[in-house]
Inverse folding.
C-alpha cells in the first residue's frame, strides 16, 4: 500500500484550514500512514462467517420492571415550593414566550 504523501497531508490541511509547517507535514504523513495501516489490518481480520455487530458481547436489558408504589401527593410535593399554579411549580419566564 503506498504511503500518505506530504502533498496529501498539505491538501487535507488546506481543506481543514490548518496551517502546517514543513516538518509537521512529514510528521503527520507518517502518523496518518500508521493509522490507515491499522484500519486496513482490522478489515483483514473480519471474516465472512462473522456477522456484523454493534457490540462484541450480547446485551441484555438490566432495568428493573416498573412497580407502582405510594408517593407524594401533588399538595405534598408542592408544599415547599415558593410559588405554584394549577398544581405545578411556578418559575420565572426565561424564554420570553407565552
Amino acid at each position: 500500500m503506498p504511503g500518505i504523501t506530504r502533498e496529501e497531508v498539505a491538501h487535507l490541511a488546506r481543506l481543514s484550514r490548518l496551517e502546517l509547517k514543513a516538518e509537521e507535514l512529514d510528521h503527520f504523513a507518517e502518523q496518518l500512514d500508521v493509522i490507515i495501516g491499522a484500519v486496513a489490518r482490522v478489515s483483514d481480520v473480519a471474516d465472512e462467517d462473522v456477522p456484523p455487530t454493534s457490540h462484541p458481547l450480547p446485551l441484555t436489558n438490566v432495568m428493573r420492571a416498573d412497580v407502582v408504589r405510594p408517593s407524594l401527593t401533588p399538595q405534598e410535593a408542592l408544599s415547599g415550593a415558593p410559588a405554584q399554579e394549577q398544581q405545578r411549580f411556578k418559575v420565572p419566564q426565561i424564554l420570553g414566550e407565552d
